[in-house]
Specification:
By secondary structure, the protein is of the alpha+beta class. The protein has helices at 2-12, 32-53, 85-88, 108-119, and strands at residues 16-21, 59-68, 71-78, 123-129, 133-141.
Length: 143
Amino acid sequence: IKTTLLVANNEIKYSCDVALELTDIPSVYANGGQINQVLLNIIINASHAIRAKFTNDKGLITIRTYCEGEKVFCSIRDNGCGMAEEIRSRIFEPFFTTKPVGQGTGLGLGIVYDIICKQHEGGVDVESNPGEGTCFVFSLNVK
């Protein structure tokens, strides 16, 4: 998570503060590079949502890790513009984007879904309310 934040720093430093709530979690068997890609895609989307809502102030991205039973969780919450249900229901579709032409490919969250759900047999949940922000929670099995 900290390495991914270093990579994302230029994208987020002027528009977002980041709060980390990282707990000790058990090891999981996963492709580290792919998990970093998941984190990066969600963090970059969070920074875009914050910039869409705040013009003069910084928004907040909160990243939290925790363990429940045989699963490790990572939640990434932002206080950006949020999404209506009709948008949220489509975000994992390849090439679906709400960004203007030339600013987004619509592949980022499709990649998140593929890496977490298909390649790592984990799960991804999303909660979002327009004007309030979005929370992505992904889980991986402890092995």
